[in-house]
Amino acid sequence: MTIKTLDKMMIIKIAWKNIWRNPTRSGVVIVSVLLGIWAGVFVLAFSMGMNNQRVKAQLNNFVGHITIQHAKYDEDKLIKYALEEAPKMVLQLQKNPQIVATTTRVSAIGMASSSAGGFGAQIHGIDLKNETKVFSLHEKIIQGKYFEGIKRNPVVIGQKLAKRLKLKLRSKVVLTFQNEQGEIISGAFRVVGIYKSSNAAYDESNVFVRNTDLRGLLNNDQIIHHIVCRVSDYQQAPGLVKQLNNQLETPDNLIQSWKQTSPDLAYVNSMMSQMLYIFVGIILLGLSMGIVNTMLMAVLERTRELGMLMAVGMSKTRLFKMIVTETFFLTCVGAPIGVLLAWGTIQYTSIHGIDLSMFSSGLESFGYDTIVRPRLATKYYMQIGMMVVMAALLSAIYPALKALKLKPVEAIRKI
Fold this sequence. Notes:
Elements: H1 3-19, H2 23-63, E1 66-70, H3 73-76, H4 86-94, E2 99-114, E3 117-126, H5 128-134, E4 141-144, E5 154-158, H6 159-165, E6 172-178, E7 184-195, H7 200-205, E8 206-210, H8 211-218, E9 226-231, H9 237-247, E10 253-257, H10 258-261, H11 263-301, H12 303-311, H13 316-352, E11 354-355, H14 360-365, E12 371-372, H15 378-395, H16 397-404, H17 408-413
Parallel strand pairs: 3-8, 5-7
Antiparallel strand pairs: 1-9, 1-10, 2-3, 2-6, 2-9, 4-7, 5-8, 6-7, 11-12
Helix pairs in contact: 1-13, 2-11, 2-13, 11-15, 11-16, 13-15, 13-16
């Protein structure tokens, strides 16, 4: 065994004994590290869970993963801006192994009216056979059934719109919109189902009818405005869009991923990762201040002892290493326990969920579910653990430098 190895073992042995010479002080540091990591990691998982649930809910219920529409449709949302050769494109899309399902929609901007008044609405003519493969809005029905029970002109509306127009099941609602020539047309529909999603604003302004019924009012049984695709992993949608642009000859059509069709959703999703690291940085800063304060007090209390060690020949390098090693040990005791407790809490709450129904009205206005299931990827545990260790080591530098400034003779005489 070399001298360097013996030297390292001696410093480690002394540092380990030193942290348990004052169990109370060491316990305070360990508990502060433990609680800081536990609370910090759980809050991160809670925020990540809320964000992931919101993104998936928006994509599954309203946005879709990939949308194909006429390039000019978003400018005026006119009926005449329909897709050309839509059936041919659907067949090509279905051959792509990354695309799980596709559906088509006929869309119109108009007004939903009842005896209680009227309100602007986006009218979606859906393909009943494929709609449920791409969107999960049928799972949000709270009254009635999903296009079952009424044969002629059934319509599914949101709960908030039903309250605004004072509509119930089987109530009559008139949908008014423009046709391809710009003429105003209208049709009478019966409420067959009422849905409630996590987005109250969407529920108030979106109604769903069968595409055959909407096409009948438009006198065009082939018109399609949107092709919506569901892919196996929504995060891969932007890359797949580039591939589809090369495969499909769409000079007048526009292929967009969910990040383009819903830029606000994409922005919030991208900002969340950055906010998580900022939040972790704030936690580590507070944790570092606590470690610096505790270790500095430990140095000041042991002034005479440190002076004696220097007087008998301990070099400043060894003294520096000893104090840093003490801090490292304190962190290594608290950090794993904190991470383990955080992991256990996250696993439990991800299964049972956290009920925030008392804040349902506020959460729904921003598109969040009332049951939150915290989730955190494994990589974040590792990254946070490494960041905590680095913060602890950096926090030990100032107390260690303070100890190096001690003069052995003066330190020994100090009581």
